[in-house]
Structure formats: C-alpha cells, structure tokens
Write a structure and sequence with these properties.
Layout lengths: L3 E8 L2 H15 L3 E8 L10 H19 L2 E4 L11 H14 L3 E4 L7 H18 L16 E4 L12 E4 L4 H8 L13 H16 L4 E5 L13
Parallel strand pairs: 1-2, 1-4, 2-3, 4-5
Antiparallel strand pairs: 5-7, 6-7
Helix pairs in contact: 1-2, 1-5, 2-5, 3-4
Length: 230
C-alpha cells in the first residue's frame, strides 16, 4: 500500500538533487512525499546577502516541489551552523510524528560539509524520539520505526557504498526539470551539479541494466539476508 516518504536535507536542494527522482516516482505511485529542509543554504552565494539568497533558495525549492509533487517543510536553522541538539531533534521529531513516515532519506554519516553530518545524526535522533512512546511531543502518538536510506551526494562520498538501486528512467526528464528550478542546478553557481548527478544516475543505471537509477546506502547492520538454502 502507498505510504509516506520523508527526505531530510541539511540545505534546500540537497534532497531534491540526490533523491528527487525517487520522491517523484513514489508520489506518482500514490505515496505522500515530503522534503524537510533544516536550513535554506542561505550562505552559499558569493554575491547575494544571506536574506536575499535564502529567499531565492526557498522560491526555488517551492518551484521544484511542484514538479516533484512533494510537500516542502522549512525549519528555522542557519546554514553552516547546524548542530545536533535536543531542541532541534525534538522539533524534527514533532514533525515526524505528524507526518508518520514509512520510509526516510537523509545524508550519509560522513561528509566534507559539517551540516550534512549534523543532518544525518539529527535525523537518527529525531526518529528515535518520534518512535519512542516515552517522549512527550505535544501529545502526538508515536510513529512506527521507518527504515532510513542514505543519499548519494558528491560531498558525502567518504565510506558511502550504494546498496539499494531504483530505476528512475521513466521520471528522468521531469527530474531534470525539477533539478534546474535551482540556479545552481542550471550551473549558475560555478559547480556543475547537473553534470555530476546526471553522470551518477547513468552509472547507477548501467549497473542494473537501465538508463538511469538513483542509489542509496543503508546501515551495515541492515545488510542481512535470510535463506533456507543458497
């Protein structure tokens, strides 16, 4: 049955770039799809003020969401200053109890960007709080435990190993359209984001015999197979 998929990113654009096609595919299959932006990534412009660029990133994220058929959520934390605190984990846990995810996506645990690592550990902490009945979170009922998958991101490469591959060929054109709702997705920030992610989806697609795929990591302890015989 369709469920609820929630992707939690450190900055607006992180989950759209790394998991947008997967989210769109789930949305078209009847799932509720959500992106939670812990910050806007407002300190990423060499020219605009943080206020101006934050407003731009929010508009871009909302435009992208309409293409991906997802709901955007914006938390009030500052780019470059994200920390794993009980306050932030609690706010995220309250949101998770409201959304009641059946699957979650976030950053891999190692990154060259401290915000990405903080997002990883905040997500894990928040899911624990949301699913544990002993945390009083505004009277909301505990969620079930949702499996969490880690996105393939050029900044989060250390130790990342793709494990789960999803064919995104049928939604690839709309994924590109959504990706390029962001100025940096169109190459305006100097780094060729689209070239990198397009190449990764093609490489992952070749690995499983399709045109394009997105790949995700999982925790080592989740890598189990149970069989009666080989």
């Amino acid at each position: 049955m369709p469920g609820c998929i929630v992707a939690i990113g450190a900055h607006a654009g992180d989950m759209e770039f790394t998991a947008g096609a997967l989210l769109l595919k789930h949305a078209r299959a009847g799932w509720d799809a959500h992106i939670v932006n812990l910050t806007l990534g407002e300190k990423g412009s060499p020219d605009l003020s943080t206020r101006e660029y934050g407003q731009q990133k929010r508009r871009e994220a909302e435009d992208c969401a309409r293409v991906l058929s997802v709901t955007q959520h914006f938390l009030p934390y500052s780019d470059g200053e994200l920390s794993v605190t009980d306050e932030a984990a609690r706010e995220l846990a309250i949101l998770l109890r409201g959304l009641r995810p059946t699957a979650m996506l976030t950053h891999w645990r190692h990154s060259i960007h401290a915000d990405h690592e903080a997002a990883h550990y905040l997500t894990r902490r928040a899911l624990f709080m949301a699913s544990n009945r002993h945390f009083d979170l505004e009277g909301l009922a505990p969620t079930g435990w949702a499996p969490t998958y880690y996105a393939d991101n050029w900044e989060d490469a250390e130790g990342f190993r793709p494990y789960l591959y999803v064919d995104i060929s049928e939604v690839f054109a709309d994924f590109e359209r959504a990706f390029k709702c962001f100025a940096i997705g169109r190459g305006e920030g100097g780094y060729p984001y689209w070239d990198w992610y397009e190449a990764r989806t093609r490489i992952h697609g070749i690995a499983i015999g399709v045109q394009h795929a997105q790949a995700f990591g999982i925790d080592e302890e989740s890598k189990r197979q149970v069989r009666e015989t080989l």
